[in-house]
Amino acid sequence: MSSSAWSVKRSLWRFADDGGAGVALVHTHRFSAPVKLSGFELPRCWDSTGNERFLRSLRLMVIAPGGSEWNEVWSNEDLPARAPSTIRFQIIPALAARLEAWRIHPPARQPRASSLREDTVEPLSILDGNSAHGIFRWITEPMEDAARSSVIVPWQATVLPEIEIVPPSPGVAVFRHGDSVVMDNGWLRIGCSLERPRLTHLGWDQLGAGRQLDNLLASPEFPGSTMRHWTAGNGPVVVTPLWRSAPSRVSADKIQASGSRVTWKKVHLADGIALDASFALSSTSLEIELTLSVSNELIAVDAEAWRLNWNLQRTLVSHLAEIHQPFVNGRRGRCRFPAILHAPNYGSVRVEVETGDPTRNFLIVDSNLAACQSWCGIEVGVEPLANGDVRLQRGDHHIRLTLRRCEVVPAGAADLPAVRRSWASGFAFQPEGVGMSCTAVHSLAWFQMHQFADHARATDGPSGELMRSLTRYTLELGLRGAPGYGSQHWGFADTDSSISIAAGVLAEDAPAGWAETIWPRLREAGQRIRASQREGLVTCTAYTGNRGERRWSTNWWDTICFGHQDAYANALAWRGLKMLARVASRLGDRTEADACANAAAQLKQAYWPAFRHPESGLVSGWRSADGELHDYSFLFINGIAVYGLVPHNSKIALVHRIEEERMKTGFSSARFGLPGNLRPIPAAECARGHGDEDGFGRFQNGGITACMAYHWVRAMGMTGCAGVRGIEDELLAGFEDRLFGCGINDYSEFRCRDGVPCGIVGMLTDQFYVLLAILQNRGMVPPLLLE
Fold it and tell me: With contact defined as beta carbons under 8 Å apart, do 198 and 308 qualify?
């Protein structure tokens, strides 16, 4: 039989000593009771050739019943490429199991003409338990009752008496709701269960306008949730290798509610481990005190004294914090304090440690996209080990944290409510993944690096310093070949340029020596851009862009078949080459500086003649290998070209021509965003699986979105177009009305003209880049760093 216990996926790319990228995936499972483990079932997956298995080297580690150490019990260093999906071995008693897998093939390939989706399966999805290519599962049988009862001690259910609540602290309202005490200070609301150690509600509102009434925590009641995927959330998590739920009830003498403080005392978690937990709300902050009492030293898979489980169907909470322990067995989600928790449409809170050993207290982060949840856990008094586990030593381990409202905005945006709540949504940092993410729970899109850097450059104060640090961390991973959407082997033509721009922007105020450290790999990116130039223009050989080919795209707008010579990718390359020349000059590499400057000049000279459509006078989306220009009145492409690639005497006429067409074609409102294109793109020029069903006005073929809207809004501002202020006001109203940054599976990152969602995710960080254009147009932040 297959175990039905809840499991945790942790996955990671590990770098070899030579700096090259290899992959290590780790799947860790804590069984709800000791089991007889006899095998596992792998999902179908492909490697770089499109038909062999990614996983070729496997190792199985287990913790035996009654033990605390990991032991290797099975391995295969050369699994056949076409190995069976089901792998069996002799029965092994286990409390916990960890499967470690390596991809031995280099992460490089040339796209195939068919089955593109299968050919580009992300290796990080293989062991997550819910892949589109099948599921991973352990093959187990239960142990005998005697063995099970020797480990599991059932919790004693007791009837909870009424608890009297004394008057609360000033500025805080306290009331009973069901079996919870609810405390609200006007911008943060917290609910504490009086049945067991659990938070039943946590929500905040940056502006104190009532949005704290929305519960950001996951619970058994939220849509789509099942008990299989619900942790006892937002409550204590067992610190032994064996996963157990928190007690279903605790006795009244263990619960204290006084004023605006709720305390659980000496809650038994496991043999020799008890927890004291206290949550107190004042008018300005939430105070959390946790004390973990450990009788005997032990090694733990996870040691979170408390966990906050977020409901991703409400909003995508980001964990913005410095990484503590990268590249170690999936524990890249371990972060240092302080941390910023940001919820799109709600704002940010800063979590700081007031008392406690900073070398022993951490925030550990992970996510389960299939369950629509992500979470952060507070580790108290742990010693991180080299393999990612932790050691808990004997004694009492204490931490006191505070949550306070935190501004993550440019200094000039204090009077714009939508910007205050949503600016930080442009930084969806994913500590357990690969850094800045396109959604906070998906992988990073490497061709967005320039957006993160531009956004971070405009952010003021200590929060801005943290955002720039996290973006630099992400950039370093990208230069080393870490995985993500838009990696070189995907065939995208804008990745190297985006990374080059980001490096140039971030080098401006980077720590001493940072630019010198990254320069060798950054120089390689510039050399790849120049090597791809044909007659001055960046030219992609992976995709021809010919009508009817129906393959993937060479840029961010990925379901439209941009190919060969891509106007957007070339515009990004122009800025990237100029930024590379700037960095090279500062570092004294005159040869590279001159080469990049000359390549940028050649690109600019060739751009307008190559992409200007002779009939419309607009910049076409791409010139395919057969010489055809593909012009569908792309707003974002004409917008980015206005920066410096359209002749000065043509800029104003170009902007007015598109604005007139936008009004005539019924896209006059910007409340939901702007369309990428104003004229229908035929299905023959959309990637397979798109275009036929979508039709015009849906998704990336005329769908309305804030994604890529930066370029057009900024172009209107740069040319002095009279209608730009109205567009900005409509966009800001849309942000204020929570039309952007919605929850996962909301599908609202693109909308039809009537507002009906037609996207595929729900939120993309690209949506918030347009806020930068609005602030630049209004003189609140400096313009883009171009040269």
Answer: no
**CA angle in degrees (0–180, nearest 5) for 451-453-457:** 120
DSSP 559-587: TB---SEEHHHHHHHHHHHHHHHHHHHHT
Q: Which residue shows structure tokens 């860790």?
A: 28
Peptide bond into 338 cis (omega under 30): yes
What is the pLDDT, as a whole number, of residue 168? 80
Q: Distance (Å, rounded) from C-alpha 149 to C-alpha 153?
A: 7
Between β-strands 173-177 and 55-63, what pairing exists: parallel, antiparallel or unpaired? unpaired
Predicted pLDDT at 443: 74
Q: What are phi and psi of 676, to 5 degrees?
A: -75, -35
Q: What length does the chain have?
A: 787
**Residue 150: CB atoms within 10 Å:** 13
DSSP annotation of 452 reads H
When pLDDT is cut at 50, 70 and 90, the band that residue 486 belongs to is confident
Question: How many percent of the chain have pLDDT more than 70?
Answer: 80
Yes or no: say if 340 and 351 are a contact pair by the CB < 8 Å rule.
yes
Contacts of 239 (CB under 8 A, 6+ apart): 269, 270, 273, 292, 294, 298, 300, 302, 303, 304, 305, 392
Eight-state DSSP code of residue 93: E
Nearest to 497 by CA among 408, 369, 600: 600
- Asked if 503 and 519 touch (Cβ cutoff 8 Å), the reply is no
Q: How far apart are CA 448 and CA 727, in angstroms?
A: 24
Give the H or E element holding residue 654.
helix 648-664
Q: What tokens does 668 get? A: 């006059």
Rounded distance between C-alpha atoms, residue 747 and residue 780, angstroms: 32
In order of 65, 139, 152, the CA distances from 146 in angstroms are: 12, 21, 10
User: Distance between CA atoms of 768 and 748, rounded to whole angstroms?
Assistant: 14
Joined tokens for residue 178: 């069901």
CA distance 671 to 733: 7
Q: How far apart are CA 98 and CA 701, in angstroms?
A: 44
Question: Do 27 and 127 meet the contact criterion of CB atoms below 8 Å apart?
Answer: yes
SS3 432: coil
Q: 86-103 and 21-41: which strand pairing?
A: antiparallel
Sign of CA dihedral 262, 266, 268, 272: positive
Write out the E strands in 271-357.
Answer: 273-281, 286-294, 298-300, 304-311, 318-320, 334-335, 339-343, 347-355
Element spanning 648, H or E: helix 648-664
d(CA 84, CA 82): 6
> Do 377 and 428 contact (CB within 8 A), yes or no?
no
Nearest partner of 451 among 343, 575, 584, judged by Cα: 575
577 φ, ψ (degrees, to nearest 5):
-65, -40
Q: Closest Cα partner for 674 from 632, 695, 702?
A: 702
Order across the sheet with 334-335: list the strands: 304-311, 373-379, 362-368, 334-335
Tokens representing 221 are 């009641």
- pLDDT tens for 403-442 read 999 999 998 887 899 999 999 999 999 887 768 988 877 7
H or E stretch covering 396? strand 395-406
Using alpha carbons, select from 275, 392, 378 the residue that is nearest to residue 335.
378
The CA–CA distances, whole Å, from 152 to 66, 197, 228, 244, 647 equal 11, 19, 19, 9, 75
**Which residue type is seen at 369?**
L
Place of tokens 């032990």: 298
Q: Please, which residues have CB within 8 angstroms of residue 215's CB and are 6 or more apart in sequence?
A: 191, 200, 201, 202, 203, 222, 311, 314
* Percent of the chain at pLDDT exceeding 90: 54
> Residue 456 burial (CB < 10 Å; 0-12/13-18/19+)?
buried
pTM of this structure: 0.85
Bridge partners of 123, per DSSP, are: none
